[in-house]
Amino acid sequence: MESPLSYALAFFFALFSFLSSSSLVNASTQLIDDVCKKTINNAECLKILESNPQALSASSYKDLAQAALGLAIANAEDSQTFINNLLKSDPKDAIKECASLYQAVVASFKSSKVEIEEDPMTANYDAKIAGDDAGNCETALSSKGVKVPEISVRNHVAKLYSSIGDVVTALLD
Q: Structural domains in the chain?
């Protein structure tokens, strides 16, 4: 039979574990809040980062930057694949231009993630220009009278990821 001391120790250990994990979550959500309120869309930023386990476990801006840029890369690669597939059935010049621009979006996000460790200022620049390229895709579509809502939504999201990357990499030491 277990002693009352064993129960007390088990209770305090469980309580300590809960409080420790809660403070880590609170610290990471504070980092996320600090970043998201400076982006182009606080609510969408919170939705993205608070649904990602890696972002939620971030204990520093560097950890959060790694998580956010990992998400940005995955999103940009998915968008690039979508556009390249669309191009096969709809080879309009504007879509070709977007396909080319999304190569640059992916490359910029990848470069930004690599530069986090070595050169945060370059990481910041690369994250920012990824959004510029997505914006240029949108301009190419609208200037040529091409309406592809799926690409426009993807451009919006890429610009949001760019904003997140811009903000978080600006906070690196």
A: 4-170 (1.20.140.40)
